[in-house]
């Protein structure tokens, strides 16, 4: 098929590259000149494992190209994906101006060059009812061309991709949701996704409102598991229990399972937290109180302060102390700092007069844009630990899981480890001479 993907964030790029890899002809639409120039040089504006390889091979094969000409891309395509960033205010209100503006431009492009039937796909995470609004906007544009001249269908196709694992998520999707009341549009999308849905069990064809709500519900439920475990971990500390033992017991129950039960310093990710804010706003507008979702958000915001509390408590004060931070991206295998717990820790350390030395495999350039010369950026994880009074592990990159602890012990001024991900064995660390502090671990 001929496909246009409007938006080149990580969802847009992964969607375009993977669809091209399955033999489709894809046009990526990017309206920002600097970003477009980067993509046309074959460079990526984001870090996402394996994406560079797929992008390069499909560009060389002529199946994936980029343009700023949205109208021509729409006119050339059978399916048009809108993968537009939807910002969310602090009050949880989604800002739909950009996606509605794009819909108007798509509508005018179809009117200017009416032709074959097109499917317009909303890939962004949007409030329930937005796909219906988009259909009305597109229909209003099409009406100016006269009845029957412009034929199109509108679909909600929410993304369930995880940053750092997006390529594999796309090619091995556990569910593909197609939300539309237009049978022709549903058939087109089913054909498009057929190579990814060899068994029909992964394909869910439903109405657009159920599709939109399913994305918010997924995010909220996964987040609630994380917040539940983080809340329980603090209780474990209070009563002298070990949360890792509790986690193993919970995960052994087939009704619960082991996934998303890991304890940490709170979850980050702008998209996930925007989903929660937007869902809470939608519930309020509908006169409902989603108490579990609200508690999930409150617990998470509190949890982001836990590491700073531990570091300050262990060191007694932070003024002129040197604190090493390993990992600042909100999760491994990404350079994204969106709502990352490490930022809360760094802000607190700086506010209390500490000197901060940071290492991250991929996120340091993004971090420099936020902090400039206020912190030290280390080229290796061991450089970050030189002269440190404490080391805080925040993001569990693989390279941090089994470092050379003897070398680490020598580099640090005071051998204090604050393990924000519970990846190190407390007994082993203490045998090596470290003062170890995890989250919810038995003292």
Walkthrough of the structure:
This protein has 443 residues and is an alpha/beta fold. The chain folds into three domains: 2-206, Rossmann fold (3-Layer(aba) Sandwich); 216-297, N-(1-d-carboxylethyl)-l-norvaline Dehydrogenase, domain 2 (Orthogonal Bundle); 304-437, Rossmann fold, CATH 3.40.50.720. The chain has 18 helices and 14 strands. It has helices at residues 10-21, 33-40, 51-60, 70-76, 97-112, 130-143, 166-171, 183-193, 208-239, 243-251, 270-285, 291-303, 306-315, 341-351, 364-371, 381-385, 405-411, 426-431, and strands at residues 2-6, 25-29, 64-67, 79-82, 118-122, 152-156, 176-179, 203-206, 322-326, 355-359, 376-377, 390-393, 416-419, 435-437. The mean pLDDT is 94.
CATH superfamily of the largest domain: NAD(P)-binding Rossmann-like Domain
CATH class bucket of the largest domain: Alpha Beta
- What is the number of helices? 18
CATH topology of the largest domain: Rossmann fold
Structural class: alpha/beta
Q: How many β-strands, per DSSP?
A: 14
The tally of domains stands at 3
Instruction: Provide the CATH architecture of the largest domain.
Output: 3-Layer(aba) Sandwich
Helix content: 40-55%
First-to-last CA distance: 60 Å
Strand line-up of the largest beta sheet: 3-2-1-4-5-6
Summarize the structure.
The chain has 18 helices and 14 strands.
What key phrases describe this protein's structure?
single chain; 443 residues; alpha/beta; Rossmann fold; N-(1-d-carboxylethyl)-l-norvaline Dehydrogenase, domain 2; 3 domains; 6-stranded parallel β-sheet; elongated
């Amino acid at each position: 098929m001929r496909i246009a993907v409007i938006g080149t964030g990580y969802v847009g790029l992964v969607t375009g590259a993977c669809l091209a890899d399955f033999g489709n002809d894809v046009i990526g639409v990017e309206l920002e000149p600097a970003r477009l120039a980067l993509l046309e040089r074959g460079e990526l504006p984001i870090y996402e494992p394996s994406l560079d390889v797929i992008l390069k091979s499909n560009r060389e094969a002529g199946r994936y190209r980029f343009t700023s000409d949205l109208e021509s891309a729409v006119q050339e395509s059978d399916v048009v994906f809108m993968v537009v960033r939807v910002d969310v205010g602090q009050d949880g209100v989604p800002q739909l101006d950009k996606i509605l503006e794009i819909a108007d431009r798509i509508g005018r492009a179809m009117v200017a060059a009416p032709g074959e039937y097109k499917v317009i796909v909303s890939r962004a995470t949007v409030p329930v009812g937005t796909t219906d609004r988009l259909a009305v906007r597109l229909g209003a544009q099409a009406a100016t061309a006269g009845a029957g001249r412009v034929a199109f269908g509108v679909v909600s196709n929410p993304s369930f991709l995880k940053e750092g694992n997006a390529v594999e998520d796309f090619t091995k999707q556990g569910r593909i949701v197609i939300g539309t009341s237009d049978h022709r549009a549903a058939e087109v999308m089913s054909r498009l996704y057929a190579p990814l849905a060899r068994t029909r069990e992964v394909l869910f064809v439903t109405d657009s409102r159920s599709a939109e709500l399913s994305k918010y519900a997924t995010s909220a439920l996964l987040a609630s598991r994380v917040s539940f475990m983080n809340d329980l971990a603090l209780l474990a500390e209070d009563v002298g229990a070990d949360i890792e033992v509790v986690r193993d017991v919970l995960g052994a129950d087939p009704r619960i399972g082991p996934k998303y039960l890991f304890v940490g310093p709170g979850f980050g990710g702008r998209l996930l937290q925007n989903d929660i804010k937007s869902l809470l706003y939608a519930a309020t507008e509908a006169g409902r109180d989603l108490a579990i979702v609200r508690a999930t958000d409150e617990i998470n915001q509190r949890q982001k302060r836990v590491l700073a509390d531990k570091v300050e408590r262990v060191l007694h004060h932070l003024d002129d102390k040197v604190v090493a931070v390993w990992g600042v991206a909100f999760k491994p295998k990404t350079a994204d700092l969106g709502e990352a717990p490490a930022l809360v820790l760094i802000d607190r350390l700086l506010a209390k007069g500490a000197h901060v030395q940071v290492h991250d495999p991929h996120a340091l350039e993004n971090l420099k844009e936020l902090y400039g010369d206020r912190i030290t950026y280390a080229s290796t994880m061991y450089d970050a630990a030189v002269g440190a009074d404490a080391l805080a592990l925040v993001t569990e990159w693989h390279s941090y899981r089994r470092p050379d602890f003897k070398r680490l012990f020598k580099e640090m001024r005071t051998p204090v480890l604050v393990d924000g991900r519970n990846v190190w064995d407390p007994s082993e660390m203490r045998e090596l001479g470290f003062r170890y502090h995890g989250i919810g671990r038995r003292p």
